[in-house]
């Protein structure tokens, strides 16, 4: 029997570079977890960028990152962020 150990779902943190966005909504449409929606605000180009509405749903699939034609969205691993934060706190 294959033992997979304790399988833990990955969690992502979504980062949006608002002023790069051209408001195509691909990231919103294709996100499998409904993490994003289009916002009402305008960026410098006059487009509506997306915003995160369900941060805890992000499973770090990185589909939004891969599909964005403007490289305006990227995802980081939540565990890594937490580890970095812990390191900063423990530094003298
Ligand atoms: S990484 Fe996946 S689940 Fe997270 S926001 Fe992007 S498409 Fe949605
Ligand atoms: S896919 Fe990229 S350009 Fe399109 S709405 Fe999302 S962030 Fe903006």
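Sequence proposed for the structure above (92 residues):
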């Amino acid at each position: 029997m294959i033992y997979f150990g304790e399988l833990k779902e990955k969690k992502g943190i979504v980062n949006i570079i608002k002023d790069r966005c051209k408001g195509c909504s691909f990231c919103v449409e294709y996100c499998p977890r409904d993490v994003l929606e289009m916002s009402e605000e305008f960026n410098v180009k006059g487009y509506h960028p997306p915003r995160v509405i369900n941060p805890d749903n992000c499973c770090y699939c990185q589909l939004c990152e891969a599909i964005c034609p403007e490289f305006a969205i990227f995802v980081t691993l939540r565990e890594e962020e937490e580890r970095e934060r812990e390191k900063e706190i423990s530094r003298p």
